[in-house]
Amino acid sequence: MNTISLDKPLIKRRPFSFEKWAPALLLLTAIILYVVACIVTGQTQYLTLDNLLAVVGRSIALGITAIGQTFAILVASIDLSVASLISASAVLSSVVMNGNPDMVVPAIVLALILGAVVGLLNGLVITQLKVNPLIATLGMSLIIQGVLSAFVSNFAGSVPEEFQFFAYGSVFGLPFGTVFFFGLAFLAFFILRYTRFGSQIYAVGGNPDAARFAGISTTKMIVSAHIICSICAVIAGLYLASRLRSGAPWIGSDGLYDLESIAVVVIGGTILAGGRGGIWGTVAGMLIFSLVDSFFNIIEIDAFVKQVLRGVIIVAAVAFYSVKSRRAVA
Amino acid sequence: MKQKPVIEMQNIGKGFPGVVALNAVSIECYSGEIHALVGENGAGKSTLIKILSGVIQPDSGRITLDGEAVSFKHPLESLNAGISVIYQEFSLLPDRSVAQNIFLGRELTHRGILQNAQMNAQTRKILDMFVGGKKIDPETPLSSLDVASQQMVEIAKAISLNSKVLVMDEPTAALNEAECQELFESVEMLRDRGTAIIYITHRMREVTRLADKVTVLKDGEIAARFNSMPAPEDIVRAMVGRDITQFYAPFASPEEISQQVLCVKGGANASIHNINFSLHAGEILGIAGIQGAGRNALAMAIFGHIPFTQGEVTLLGNKVHLTNPRQAIAAGIGLLPGDRKSEGLTLKQSIRDNAMLSSRALAGIFSSHKANKYIDLAGIDLLLDKMEVKAPSYDYEIQNLSGGNQQKAIVARALSLNPKVLIFIEPTRGIDVNTKASIYQLMRDLARKGTGIIMISSDLPEVVGVSDRVLVMHEGTIAAEFSSGAQEADIMLAATGEMGAVA
């Protein structure tokens, strides 16, 4: 029935992989939408490089969180505690710095330690106590938020001007935050693609039994992924403290960083079941999110309608994947 | 030359609660030898392999590898010692490339950076060693390969691990003819390189084609050992040779078998083809065959779960086209699933609720919980009484019942709808001997009342003892038909595709 395969070797003729390109396709669609909206409404001032950088800049915290979330989701786990951790990190660093430039480094170190501990606890509760990650991290989120609210109720402390460089500084004429974000994305990409650690992250998410039989410690990988996820959330919190010049206990939950970081990862083509996906998809997902937001602003849509449409877009994007990839498989 | 066996398992014993899975089983395999391990389902082959690879621990006996006593607590230990097992379900990662799968857990790195090019090149080299491997691209994701190629990847993995012993568990189960030939060549290539191969199969053809030695397992014991290739009939006889016990109900008399209730003509779908048979009221039609021969696919097609895509089905004289189980149940077909726990029961509900499941489902949405147009609670209690379901109360959670009593509750569920055709899949799997007899009696009573019964079973004595007529499936179609009193050996030959060669 298939005579071609007998004569010609099938080597080096890999079929077009829809899944690999889907995030790029979605991003392209978002860009086209955005550009068309700018032109149609005559607001071409939004098409300048500065404005595009501003579009990206608005979502830096979300992007950083989503990079961490990608690691958690790749090992078939999930982290709902990132939003609370972002608040905790922002408040902790802002209170420790309290306007004193000498306290910047200790504050950052302290926040990172907090992240590592939260990630370690999340990972251990999931792997050792066998608690479903959804519940384990939801519990962690409530604990962090509760402790935080017991101490502060509004902006606490302040960050010195030096630390505001993170959000407002620029290098090579580009915003530092944006450069930092892409640097972090590249680092994450490199780890996932070119190190044994990354390879094993995919293995654990793809088939935990096969990974275990191949001698990989699934516990170590899941715990590591959670530590990375929490540290990324802490960095996002530091960024927000720098941007807002202080930390408040509600900035994480108000920004919906938990659910939106998951949405960004999933729109980027990483599957919730684990083992498939990657960082560039997540970056594309984050760009799609900010472009769509800006698109709504340009066409001046009502805020509630906007919320509804965002929901529709998330579901539609994921449906687009599953329907398309099912057809590709069949 | 009198070398030592590479792998030697001596007097292995293993019991599970209530059963002796293995009793003093010994098997050894030399370098450059293919040792076939054959036996019916449940003979203990899988248990033996799990012990060898360290998935489970034996109760008694010893294993020596290269003359040294070993004891594996984890599959990883046996893998590191040089024993690779290729299970029927592969342990591969679908979303990773061929090379990434082969080097899983022992990736090549240089200063912490993956050496992808090197891994791809080494994979290429290994794949080029056998015919079927040449067309596989090391960088292609595994999910885009067909089953045969995925199996090549498993074999390649064993080569790259430099395994001394390779165990293959029914490797041809999912392969077509041409793919089988490629596989055989790969296996022979491995043997010629000096690997000791333990090859598990039911198919006589593969045994005669590949094996140097044959060990037949039966009921957890060694039934026969052949150090050179015997005639296929001898192997088959050793596999099935036992007395048919007396607990089967008598067969139907000719006058008990009446009009045709079900007829399939030219039925086919993705897994079965050219299905032609009829079923009469009052008869029990047994369907035999090895795993993957299409027996379950046939049942699922009749039941509308994975429907026929071609052919026609006549039920009680009317042409029907059933595309889901709900339609099939409404049309008068009942099915008793083979895997009670996952397909048959809502474990945490009561016996009564489980028995009412189908009638409630088919009754209108506004019908009462207690009674519907098919049956009411009193009626279901009566059915359960008649079936002699043993339980403290019918409000008892069904998960606490024995397998036999659970099975009876499912039969009650099917009977509440007064079916014309009942399909039993593995009706006595996991059920103790005494309850088995009462299930057989129940099936016979139902047939006498005019139901047409199809019984799919892997238990050959059961097929022979219960069925008024036997269909044997092989490679997706009906390969043979026997009337009551057929010989187990003949059925086995038809099921393994050896009929032409022997008959």
Describe this structure in words.
Chain A is mainly alpha-helical. Mean pLDDT of chain A is 88; it is low at 1-13. Chain A has a domain at 64-279. The relative contact order of chain A is 0.19. Chain A has helices at residues 4-7, 18-40, 49-57, 60-74, 82-97, 104-127, 133-151, 165-168, 176-194, 196-206, 208-213, 218-244, 251-254, 257-267, 279-298, 303-329; strands at 170-171, 174-175. In chain A, β1 (170-171) and β2 form a beta hairpin. The two termini of chain B are 39 Å apart. In chain B, β11 (213-218) and β12 (221-226) form a beta hairpin. Chain B has three domains: 7-240, 3-Layer(aba) Sandwich (Rossmann fold); 261-332 and 419-427 and 447-503, 3-Layer(aba) Sandwich (Rossmann fold); 342-418, no CATH class. Chain B is globular. Classes of the chains: A mainly alpha (330), B alpha/beta (503). Chain A binds chain B through residues 5, 9-12, 14-15, 17, 193-196, 198-200, 202-203, 206-207, 209-216, 275-276, 329, and chain B through 75-76, 79-80, 91-96, 100, 104-107, 109, 112-114, 116, 134-135, 137, 139-141, 143-144.
